[in-house]
C-alpha cells in the first residue's frame, strides 16, 4: 500500500512542477484543405511563383507543386507561360470535389474569400447556349 501512496505523491509533485505548454508550437490544423488553400493563393496572386504560393498556403514548395499538378490535371487551374514565368487561371465553373458541398462551384468558394482582383483571373469562356429538350424529359444538350 505504501508504494502506491508514494507513487501518487510523486505524481502530484510532478504536476505542480510542470512547465506551461506553448500552444503556438503545437501542430495546427485548418478547415480548408491544401488544395483549396493553393487554389485561393492562385486566385489572390496568379503570377506568384510556386514558392510564393506555398508560403501563402502555408505548405511546402514540394506540396504546392503536387497540389498545382492535381488542380491542373483536374481542370481547375490552367498554367500559361508569360516570358520566363508562369501565370495561372482558375476555372470557376467546375464543381467542388467534396461530398458536403457537392452542388457548389469553385466560384462559390472564391466568393467566400473574394477580393475584387480575384474575378480578373478566371477562365474567359464564351457563354454556353442550351437547346430546348424535346418533350419526354431528356436534358438539353450543351453547345459551345
List the helices and strands and how they pair.
Layout (H helix, E strand, L loop, with lengths): L1 H15 L17 H11 L5 H8 L3 H13 L3 E6 L2 E6 L15 H8 L15 E2 L11 E2 L1
Antiparallel strand pairs: 1-2, 3-4
Question: How is this structure best summarized?
Answer:
By secondary structure, this protein is an alpha+beta fold. The chain is built from 5 helices and 4 strands.
Task: Give an overview in words.
The chain is an alpha+beta fold and 144 residues long. The protein has a domain at 30-121: Arc Repressor Mutant, subunit A (Orthogonal Bundle), CATH 1.10.10. 38% of the residues lie in helices and 11% in strands. It has 5 helices and 4 strands, in the order ααααββαββ. The protein has a two-stranded antiparallel ribbon with strand order 1-2. A two-stranded antiparallel ribbon has the order 3-4. It is elongated, with a radius of gyration of 25 Å. The N and C termini lie far apart (84 Å). Residues 126-134 and 136-144 have low confidence and may be disordered.
Amino acid at each position: 500500500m505504501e508504494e502506491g501512496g508514494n507513487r501518487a505523491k510523486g505524481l502530484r509533485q510532478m504536476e505542480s512542477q510542470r512547465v506551461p505548454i506553448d500552444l503556438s508550437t503545437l501542430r495546427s490544423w485548418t478547415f480548408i484543405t491544401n488544395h483549396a488553400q493553393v487554389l485561393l493563393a492562385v486566385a489572390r496572386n496568379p503570377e506568384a511563383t510556386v514558392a510564393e504560393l506555398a508560403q501563402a498556403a502555408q505548405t511546402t514548395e514540394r506540396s504546392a507543386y503536387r497540389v498545382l499538378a492535381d488542380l491542373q490535371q483536374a481542370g481547375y487551374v490552367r498554367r500559361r507561360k508569360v516570358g520566363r514565368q508562369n501565370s495561372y487561371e482558375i476555372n470557376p465553373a467546375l464543381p467542388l470535389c467534396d461530398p458536403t458541398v457537392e452542388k457548389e462551384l469553385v466560384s462559390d468558394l472564391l466568393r467566400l474569400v473574394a477580393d475584387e482582383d480575384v474575378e480578373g483571373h478566371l477562365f474567359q469562356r464564351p457563354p454556353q447556349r442550351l437547346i430546348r429538350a424535346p418533350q419526354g424529359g431528356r436534358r438539353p444538350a450543351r453547345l459551345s
